Amino acid sequence: MSARTSRRSLPALLLALLLALTGCAEIPMSSSVGVMPVPDELGEPVTQIDPDGPSPGAGPDEIVRGFLLAGVGAGNNFEVARSFLTGDAAEEWAPLAGVTVMPSGSDLADVEARVTSDQQELGLDVPVQGTVDAQGVYRSSEPGATSRMEFRLRQENGEWRISAAPNGIVLSLANFQSVFQSYSIYFFDPSFSYFVPEDRWIPNRASIATDVVQRLLQGPPEWLAGAVVSAIPEGLRLGSDAVTIQEGVATVSLDESAAALNDRGRALLRAQLEATLEQIATVSSVEIEVAGEELDANEQVTVERTVPIPQQPVVVSGQRLARLDGTRLASVPDSPELAQAAAPAVSLDNGFYAYLADDGQSLRRFSHEPEVQDTELAAGEDLIGPSIDRMDVVWTGERDNPGELLVVLPEGGTSTISVPFLQGRQVQRIRVSRDGSRLLVVSSDDEGDHLSVVGVNRNSSGMPVAVASSVPLELGERYQRIVDASWGSLGRIVVLGSQGSGQPHIWSSRIGDPPEDLGIVEDARTVTAAEDNRSIRVGTGDGTLVSHVSGSWQRLVDLTVWAPAYPG
Predict the structure, then answer these.
(1) 468: which DSSP letter?
(2) 81-85, 116-120, 414-418, 434-438: lowest mean pLDDT where?
(3) Topology of 314-565 in CATH?
(4) I need a surface site. Which of 84, 240, 243, 436 has the fewest CB within 10 A?
(5) What would the 3-class secondary structure string for 216-244 be?
(6) Where are the domains of the chain?
(7) Long-range Cβ contacts of 172-178 (<8 Å, 24+ apart)
(8) Within a 10 A sphere around the Cβ of 256, how many other Cβ atoms?
């Protein structure tokens, strides 16, 4: 293989390889299927890589491996890769139909091939780290997952050629991390008070601004549908082929339907585009045009990126509620007596607490201002530790789950939320995001442990009425064991879990990103977070409280406390 890379890098070529796309095709996967749109026309890569074409007299195995390796060469619409195919197959093959990401250390040369006796069929089980779907959502695959790739071959002019091949290309993990970048696509909570980020992996190329806006125009994915809203009218399209950037100004040309927006709609549209586009290093401001004229908005809107919460986690200390302020422990006045497994939660405004009593058979609400109140909210067989959303709704349910959760409304009534994917699972933890738009669930069944996230649909009063989808976004495929999980900020989650047979580690990531390993805390049982990694607090089996300081785990206070939890 030869390369001409004197002026630009290999990553730049691979960026050009994975272009923004318009049609769809599938790659068969042993876990989630990765799908990417296919362009009508494939532009030339920034850097030209010249992979080797088929050698005269090459056998079926060499032809198939050469074809897969030639996927890095995008020149002349993957001309070299197509030269391994028969004429009809070369016309039908869609190289950008999907991207399969191989694990670190994997090599196509090490993948064993299965060849039929007549040498007309060959199969490979390619190891899979994850996939990226049509909207740019990265999904991890289970440890040891493979993608079955089957090829048919026949001879043309005395040489073996591939007559049928799966669509798409395969990238190593290193190349994937070089050529893709994670961007947050910003939607709103239904009140338009808070941004809700949703991460997409997008090829980091010259047209990144156009790609990002196109993802925004597509709307939220199924697992969030109805839980978030957009200022973008249905069917709105770009008015030109690209979003241009000149001297730091990103100009977004929209079709004429944008002109029908009122001032508030225009202001929200601008806020959404600015939040999404200003992540790009070369963008400092955004202009919106319709038919060549600037789209003005005679109104300003303020949308927060995070929901502010008190930074004092609640803990159980001496069988009473307490708050941790830095390294100082402050008892909650008139606290009821609690067990270590009370799983306390505190509302976002510090107004009240919820906790479990009677070995998980009673959910109770406690407040000490303006007067002491300690009342039962709900009863059950074995309840899940509560979570309190920003509307003061308390969430719980049965650990042995029938496919539903129980919510206790602020005025005291209760409602049942159907969550079909929890049917038959044991639920260890539920956590509502602090903006109220998403539900994080740790559960298990015969197939193993699950880490799931799904949108929360609400009525006009802000009360939860349903989950957005019966199919959640599954985040736990790489984990063999999941002990606990918590929301951080800006769509970040923190997980206490193991990706192998060893002790659980603490992992931190944004939803849809490969997690960062923060190391081990001995005998860790619970984890909670507020903002960045420095806010993480870990509770252990012997009552030690540990925090993440300067890249290591340190005991925070010389006290015995249990079940630390930030508001929410």
Answers:
(1) S
(2) 116-120
(3) Neuraminidase (2.120.10)
(4) 240
(5) HHHCCCHHHECCEECCCCCCCCECCCCCE
(6) 2-178, 189-294, 314-565
(7) 172/101, 172/102, 172/104, 172/106, 173/101, 173/102, 173/103, 173/104, 173/106, 173/129, 174/104, 175/11, 175/14, 176/99, 176/101, 178/10, 178/11, 178/14
(8) 11
* Cα angle 335, 411, 472; round to 5: 90
Rounded-to-integer distance, Cα 201 and Cα 275, Å: 17
Rg from Cα positions in the chain: 26
Q: Which of 231, 351, 244 is nearest to 287 (CA)?
A: 244
Nearest to 286 by CA among 221, 219, 209, 356: 209
Q: ∠ CA 181-182-187 to the nearest 5 degrees?
A: 145
Cross-strand bridge partners of residue 383: 398
**What are the tokens at 203?**
């090829």
CATH of 189-294, one of 3.30.70, 3.40.1400, 1.10.10, 3.30.300: 3.30.300
CB neighbour list of residue 118: distance below 8 Å, 6 or more residues apart: none
Contact 451, 476 (CB under 8 A): yes
Sign of CA dihedral 24, 28, 33, 36: negative
Kindly report the CA angle at 203 between 490 and 211, in degrees rounded to 5?
A: 75
Residue 88: which H helix or E strand, with range? helix 87-92
Q: Which two tokens stand for residue 565?
A: 């939890």
**40-66 confidence digits (pLDDT tens):** 333 333 334 578 999 999 999 999 999
Return the H-helix or E-strand segment holding 197: strand 195-203
Q: CA-to-CA distance for 11 and 239, rounded, in angstroms?
A: 30
Let me know if the fold of 189-294 is the same as that of 314-565.
Answer: no
Q: Are strands 99-102 and 130-132 parallel, antiparallel or unpaired?
A: antiparallel
DSSP 384: P
Q: Please determine, for residue 335, whether its predicted confidence score (pLDDT) is greater than 60.
A: yes
